[in-house]
Design goal:
4 strands; 8% strand
């Protein structure tokens, strides 16, 4: 098998790439990276010295591909499946890239800030940074609400890379910063994402690791059910 994806099953950015792979039925193997294990961490740092996951290794092409959006574009170009996650039309492709980055930078990143602050050593929490993250999510939710008032998926009628980014970002963000009643279109979009078979599969695979999630106590019961 040519493709190996290095991941942690709980990580939202890893979920984004897994959704893309499952959408197209792409054959690959996954390997969990344990950054707390010196051997696993050292091996991963050799692959990608930044130390982030996920990272894709294509043995056939002898290439290591980091960064989620780049991985998904690489897969479409080199291991295409029946579903084009980036449209052929240039304008639609730019719109997909825009919303892909939006969900990564303005939902996933601030969500991660809130989550990781909970497990920082005593005396090192960043209350100001966490407040900024909550404010960013408020702004992002309002923009997504407007976008989804006229769309089925992030950029229109077709499921794209932007939706791969949205699913894990909104799944976790809705736990640490609930949507509230002012965002019905956003809530319905999140629910459509959660019904997608690829997303269901990713969440099911992550479920055994939910006890490790710092906001496990805030998870809705429906997120914990098969």
């Amino acid at each position: 098998m040519s493709l190996t994806l290095y991941i942690h099953p709980l990580a939202s950015f890893c979920h984004k790439v897994l959704i893309a792979l499952y959408e197209n039925g792409t054959e690959f193997r996954s390997e969990t990276v344990d950054l707390t294990d010196p051997g696993s961490a050292a091996a991963h740092m050799e692959r990608w010295p930044v130390g982030k996951i996920p990272v894709l290794h294509d043995a056939m092409m002898k290439r290591v591909i980091p960064e989620t959006s780049i991985i998904i574009e690489y897969l479409q170009e080199n291991h295409p499946g029946p579903l084009a996650l980036l449209p052929a039309d240039s304008k639609a492709r730019l719109e997909t890239r825009l919303w892909d980055r939006f969900f990564d930078l303005y939902v996933n990143v601030p969500m991660g800030k809130i989550v990781t602050d909970r497990i920082r050593p005593e005396g090192t929490s960043d209350a100001f940074g966490v407040a900024e993250a909550h404010a960013t999510l408020d702004t992002a939710y309002g923009m997504i609400e407007a976008q989804m008032s006229a769309h089925e998926w992030a950029t229109g009628r077709d499921f794209t890379m932007a939706d791969c980014a949205a699913a894990p970002a909104l799944f976790y963000a809705s736990i640490v910063h609930p949507f509230g009643t002012a965002h019905p279109h956003l809530a319905r979009y999140r629910d459509r994402l959660l019904e997608r078979p690829s997303v269901k599969r990713v969440i099911a695979e992550a479920r055994p690791f939910f006890p490790m999630f710092p906001y496990r106590d805030a998870m809705p019961e429906r997120y914990l059910a098969d």
